[in-house]
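input
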Amino acid sequence: MRIENQKDAAVLEELGLRLAQARLDHNLTQEGLAIAAAVSKRTIERLETGKSVQVSNLVRVLSALNLTRNLEQLAPPIGDRPIEQLKHQGKGRRRASLTKQGPVTTWTWDDKM
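output
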């Protein structure tokens, strides 16, 4: 299954299945992986069944399975474009700005039904 364009629950479930397969490929039990990753066995169970866990625990499990290299694809480093460097005098952006399309309209109830 492709993870792209799926609902959160489907993504978590697929991620859990893949992590379970990686654990088995390393010939580890859930308890063994929990010890190697310094997390609880319950955390491994939650991950493998598609439940949410803390990001730090996910990183520990990925590290124990030697999968941290794949994190580069999750959030690749993005350098400033040359025009952005000129605009900001070599300093990186620190915050987002509003678009110049005009004021943001506020949402109202549509009572005309």
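quick obs: The chain has six helices and no strands.
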